[in-house]
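Record type: monomer structure entry
Structure origin: computed from sequence
Chain ID: A
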Amino acid sequence: MERFMSEAIKAAQLGLSEGGIPIGAVLVHKGKIIGRGHNRRVQKGSVVLHGETDAMENAGRQRASVYRDCVIYTTLSPCIMCTGTILLYGIPRVVIGENKTYLGAEDLLRQKGVVVEVLQDSECIRMMEAFIKEKPELWNEDIGV
């Protein structure tokens, strides 16, 4: 689990280095990363490229049976859009780096039977706290405030 969260953190750091929002994710199928992504709203001028949706997009088209056997690792609690994507494709387990700086729709995931694990990873927390402090207007835009 630590290895995959480390990869999600690397993706988040890449996003930050590109001038974007430091949120990363990896989609894992049977112990292998099949998609990795990071929030690219700023870089691509996109309204939907959050870390989780970017990772799924980069995994490419998969059979429903593949998604039902995946775990998504994300550095931050998934927003309602990313939660909806996770539910739509039947991903049964989500590992979250932290939910201290932002609490997404974890209750909805749990209500729908998804296993949710929150690590409260110190690097994820530090990265988001620093970003929110440095760029509050960009952060507020990303979460729809």
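Annotation 1: The mean pLDDT is 96.
Annotation 2: The first strand starts at residue 24 and ends at 29.
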